[in-house]
């Protein structure tokens, strides 16, 4: 019933609808065409090891190059795509494009790093999910351990009884899962011990208040302690200041992402950063000048 409601949601709008709603409705029409018109592209945000400053992973983030409006961010169009039932096809496109990019980096001799992809509950919960993922990996000759599937804590809440089995299969296939935006989902923590769940990403809303906000500091330390005892690897999101970096490093957080180190970048920029003839050793943090 909930699904039908969502699908028909736009029917109830009247000519008096707010400009905001009208914009959403137009967005919906255009979103349907965006895939076939090739208006989506990916950017990649580095994830660094806090201790060494080395780039150990990147996360693929979707961008919609709108013909008139320019770049539209996922926060605006992903919820619309979910309501319209378009999110599965979009997620599939993202995975295909990501695996194609991994293959291209490999062929160009870029040192192999982990690449994370955001997956919606709609696709993760679909019976075809694991098959789709492993077929895409195979078609691009990408080894499963290179991929990290990110699922938000709130998306986990919407998943059904098949979750355990899906995670088991992913685990058997050597595909890791991260719980994204952790701390915002108001859910039980039972899924932290599911097979395949290897990473926990601390939501930016907690990092923002560090180190000054005593509540954020206490919650962050508790999340780090818990994930450490469960054997999970923690990644903090949205690190913007040196002081946040220092706090998280001292509290035992393993990895971090944020504008302090790098904005999301084009594939070629990632390649240049990781390329071995780029100065000596591994790339270190804040090589990238802040932009946008
Ligand atoms: P997320 O997976 O938690 O991704 C992190 C978001 O925080 C990204 O926004 C990133 O640009 C932004 N960010 C990173 N560092 C900082 C920082 O230091 N400060 C601030 N203020 N922001 C930072 P973006 O790209 O707009 O994506 C927003 C959300 O949209 C993502 O949150 C993810 O949930 C979703 N999303 C993005 N790409 C995809 C996709 O391909 N498929 C699906 N299903 N969802 C996606
Ligand atoms: Mg993510
Ligand atoms: Mg996140
Ligand atoms: Mg987030």
TrEMBL record:
The chain holds residues 610 to 901 of 902 of the full protein. The keyword Coiled coil does not apply. Residues 24-278 form the EAL domain. The keyword Transmembrane applies. It comes from Rhodanobacter lindaniclasticus. Keywords: Membrane, Transmembrane, Transmembrane helix. One of its GO terms (molecular function) is catalytic activity. This is Diguanylate cyclase.
